[in-house]
Hints:
Layout: E1 3-12, E2 20-31, H1 34-47, E3 54-62
Antiparallel strand pairs: 1-2, 1-3
Amino acid sequence: xxxxxxxxxxxxxxxxxxxxxxxxxxxxxxxxxxxxxxxxxxxxxxxxxxxxxxxxxxxxxxxxxxx
Length: 67
């Protein structure tokens, strides 16, 4: 089983980063490699750098088996 890489995050209610605002979460992917996910993460992070309550991270999951 291959792995999938995702960029997840968005605008949070406050700087504790515990709760994403309703309708402000994002799930981008899947990406075939960590490197591809990092490129997307960097683009999102740099575009929202001045917004203190926006945060993104890269997560890895087990991929889906081909049917």
